[in-house]
Amino acid sequence: MAAEGTILHADLDAFYASVEQRDDPGLRGRPVIVGGGVVLAASYEAKARGVRTAMGGYLARRLCPEAVVVPPRMSAYSAASKAVFEVFRDTTPVVEGLSIDEAFLDVGGLRRLRGSPLDIAARLRDDVRTRVGLPITVGVARTKFLAKVASGVAKPDGLLSVPPDGEMAFLHPLPVERLWGVGPVTSGKLRARGIVTVGHVARIGEAALISMVGQGAGRHLYALAVGRDPRPVQVGRRRGSMGAQHALGRGPRTPEDLDAVLSELVDRVTRRMRAASRVGRTVVLRLRFADFTRATRSHTLPRPTSHTPLVLATARGLLAASLPAISQRGVTLVGVAVGNLDDGRTVQLELPFDGWSGAELDGALDAVRDRFGSRAVTRGTLLGRPDPVAVPLLPD
């Protein structure tokens, strides 16, 4: 008999939009779009009209003219996320956060205390609804991949358990795009050869897949299609980078405009790093051009840091090197990330360290902003400019 499925994938439904509907009863049951220039989130009422995350605001409002457009409230979303993760950790100590609104939980060994995995999942959904006021979908399965697919199929506000003896019956009829790693390019290659379901991927075999999509991707897709995913839920897993990005729209931007955006992004990222006691070595600049192509530039520092001026100087150098391409092609999005993160509490300080250090100054500014708001202390270049629109970083 196959082992019982004890992995849960818990995923909040239309997270930002759900928080807005929770906090404003007048928005409940109505189509809600978070973000004006770019859609950061859409309620399911708006999704039913074709609105999607990362869609331009003009197109979204044309598809759903009756939608209520609200500005993002990142502090509210962060608070809601923390509350939900408290529910996760009250359910089981084995929690692996994937993003602000989803996590894997391993509930193996809790049957005598809390019941079956399906019972635990149902109680988790009730607890999130009662304690945080948000809908959440949960998938239950033997592997991480199957649990995530189950939650995707069960959305919105659902619960789906995949029994070990019914895995292939559940998985194989699904479209090939349900496999992790199948984006538009890979999907096009597979569908051009008549491979449209996960079952087709399993039946065609690993060797044929490798010849179509390459060795790494072929082995990976075949393993998932036949139910192989040995990855455990990793407790305390910490992200390898922290970043933020800003949608600019399609209008022209001067170098001064871009520097102001870059400064604000670096301030935000380094503040988050210090709050999490993280330091990093690799500064990454991401650009999306007006022709929808993308570019990434990076520079690795000799030692890890979370010092804002040092990260900003590095990011400015990367931006300066990109200005010729920006002037030719235009730019619609700027992103900054710091990678190669380490624990900031274990980093060797440099000598001399007497006097008022940059780290102390950063900490003092963080304290002022925590108490009086993120705009209480700001850069001169940002005065008179509208608050930037944050866009969630998409995985590489």
UniProtKB/TrEMBL annotation:
It catalyses: DNA(n) + a 2'-deoxyribonucleoside 5'-triphosphate = DNA(n+1) + diphosphate. It is an enzyme of class 2 (transferase). Binds 2 magnesium ions per subunit. Residues 233-253 are annotated as: Disordered. Mg(2+) binds at D11, D101. The keyword DNA-binding applies. InterPro entries: DNA/RNA_pol_sf, DNA_pol_Y-fam_lit_finger_sf, DNA_pol_Y-fam_little_finger, DNA_polymerase-Y, DNApol_IV, PolY_HhH_motif, Rev_trsase/Diguanyl_cyclase, UmuC. Its cofactor is Mg(2+). The active site is at E102. Its main location: cytoplasm. Pfam families: IMS, IMS_C, IMS_HHH. Its EC number is 2.7.7.7. The keyword Nucleus does not apply. The record marks Y16 as: Substrate discrimination. Keywords: Cytoplasm, DNA damage, DNA repair, DNA replication, DNA-binding, DNA-directed DNA polymerase, Magnesium, Metal-binding, Mutator protein, Nucleotidyltransferase, Transferase. Residues 7-183 form the UmuC domain. It is found in: Cytoplasm. Belongs to the DNA polymerase type-Y family. Monomer. Poorly processive, error-prone DNA polymerase involved in untargeted mutagenesis. Copies undamaged DNA at stalled replication forks, which arise in vivo from mismatched or misaligned primer ends. These misaligned primers can be extended by PolIV. Exhibits no 3'-5' exonuclease (proofreading) activity. May be involved in translesional synthesis, in conjunction with the beta clamp from PolIII. NCBIfam families: PRK02406.1, PRK03858.1. This is DNA polymerase IV. It comes from Phytohabitans aurantiacus. The lineage of its organism: Bacteria, Bacillati, Actinomycetota, Actinomycetes, Micromonosporales. The gene is dinB_1.
